[in-house]
């Protein structure tokens, strides 16, 4: 059976009862969605949803997931363990990436650990003279060395590497793989370089990084880390909108994933972290502006502006004497005009998993 984007009724069912949510969260997952969120397109051959049947994770099924990470007591730290060299011009900027992770997983601490080398028991295969490492070697290493970290603080620990990775012989590669039940995962930044499919690895390291490629790589690296950490927090692949949690089989799908969650996934993550949505979005506006992610800055700022529109209406309802002041402050806003006070308002041929 081919994939069909879910209709409004199915999305509403996936959201569940939202009446007890704070007003800002209710606005975040209901207000002007058609201006900010797009439906998932019909998949092409080779796309994730063409090769994987995804039924969609509802709020109810999310709540029933017993293997998701839930911060509690002192267990609130996400450790990021770099494996292998990051000492070359085109390596992922880890210090920048974890700033976004700290903002996204509000209430958690994100700590970057010292770099470690590949160990002898990390299995690999040779692909055209380049080592490609199996994911279970990273998972085993993180589990085996847990006692070396602060076990009273650790919520999750994930490895990141510039090496290419694969889960088993049936797969050509993966962008990342999580093991929620153990609270570990591994994510590779190797194929996020725009020149990965055009240059040999040894040549790639010698090519200067242009600003255009820097932005592309930064955007992709942030997305892959947040996506995979999202899995450890219990989020499954999303089918409700174009969303950070969509599955991806190739570069086209990876680049289509936005740097934000759709209303359904945002609702699920909020139920665990209880963040201040306005503060989260404001932080992302500032981070995106600082590091040149202009499309993302515009999106987050627009969402904040939509909340502002609604707040003006609510205040106007509660205090009709504000009408003159609001008319001067926002003369362009059609939302305040004649408002009745009683009206309710590059693709590849591999099949990775992510």
From TrEMBL:
Pfam families, per database record: Peptidase_M54 (PF07998)
Cofactor(s) needed: Zn(2+)
Gene3D superfamilies: Collagenase (Catalytic Domain)
Residues annotated as signal peptide: none
Molecular function per GO: metal ion binding; metallopeptidase activity
InterPro entries: MetalloPept_cat_dom_sf, Pept_M54_archaemetzincn
Superkingdom, natural source: Eukaryota
Keyword Zinc carried by entry: yes
Entry keyword annotation includes Protease: yes
Record-level GO BP terms: proteolysis
Keywords assigned by UniProt, alphabetized: Hydrolase, Metal-binding, Metalloprotease, Protease, Zinc
PANTHER family: ARCHAEMETZINCIN, ARCHAEMETZINCIN-2
Protein name stated in the entry: Archaemetzincin-2
Species for this entry: Rotaria sordida
């Amino acid at each position: 059976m081919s994939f069909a984007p879910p209709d409004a009724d199915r999305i509403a069912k996936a959201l569940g009862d939202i009446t007890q949510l704070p007003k800002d969260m209710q606005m975040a997952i209901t207000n002007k969605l058609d201006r900010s969120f797009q439906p998932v397109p019909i998949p092409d051959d080779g796309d994730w949803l063409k090769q994987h049947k995804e039924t969609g994770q509802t709020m109810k099924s999310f709540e029933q997931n017993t293997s998701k990470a839930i911060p509690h007591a002192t267990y609130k730290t996400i450790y990021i363990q770099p494996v292998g060299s990051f000492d070359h011009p085109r390596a992922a900027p880890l210090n920048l990436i974890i700033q976004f992770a700290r903002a996204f997983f509000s209430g958690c601490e994100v700590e970057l650990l010292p770099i470690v080398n590949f160990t002898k028991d990390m299995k690999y295969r040779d692909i055209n003279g380049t080592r490609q490492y199996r994911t279970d070697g990273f998972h085993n290493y993180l589990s085996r060395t847990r006692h070396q970290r602060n076990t009273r603080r650790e919520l999750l620990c994930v490895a990141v590497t510039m090496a290419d990775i694969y889960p088993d012989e049936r797969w050509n590669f993966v962008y990342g793989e999580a093991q929620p039940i153990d609270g570990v995962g591994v994510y590779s930044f190797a194929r996020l370089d725009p020149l990965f499919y055009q240059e040999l690895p040894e040549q790639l390291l010698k090519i200067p990084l242009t600003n255009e490629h820097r932005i592309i790589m930064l955007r992709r690296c942030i997305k892959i880390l947040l996506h995979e950490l999202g899995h450890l927090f219990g989020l499954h692949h999303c089918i409700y909108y174009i969303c950070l949690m969509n599955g991806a089989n190739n570069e086209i799908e990876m680049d289509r994933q936005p740097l934000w969650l759709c209303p359904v996934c945002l609702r699920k993550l909020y139920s665990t972290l209880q963040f201040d949505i306005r503060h989260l979005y404001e932080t992302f506006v500032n981070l995106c502006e600082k590091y040149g992610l202009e499309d993302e800055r515009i999106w987050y700022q627009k969402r904040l502006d939509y909340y502002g529109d609604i707040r003006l209406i609510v205040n106007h309802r509660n205090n009709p004497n504000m009408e003159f002041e609001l008319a001067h402050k926002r003369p362009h806003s059609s939302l305040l005009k004649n408002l009745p006070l009683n009206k309710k308002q590059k693709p590849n041929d591999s099949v990775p998993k992510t």
